[in-house]
Amino acid sequence: MKYLYCGLLILCLLLGACWLSGREIGRRSEAVALPLEGAVSALRAGDAAQGRQLLRRSAAEWERQEGVLASLMSHSSTDEIRAALAELEAVPDGELERLALGLLRAVRSLAEMNRAVWRNIF
To answer: pTM for the whole thing?
Structure first.
């Protein structure tokens, strides 16, 4: 009977850790996504200077959050976002909206990929 209790305790601990890490990933990816949303809106309105400023803010926020995110997730996801953010300065204004939309989708998918749902666990 004690093996059953130990097994249930381990299962509860793992599910709790999964829930906590998913919540943390969601919170941190949202902090990066908010300036990206503003950048997309500014770029659609034709304000490239404001869009670039918000993209820089998003890149700075990513640098603050990347350590925790990279420790909780696959590095392939975080490396892809880091590489896209690094090339922002070299992208012409005409392609900036497309890159910002791609970044926003990638950041939003981070939280979705790590939610504690059955399809992500099994």
So the answer is: 0.79
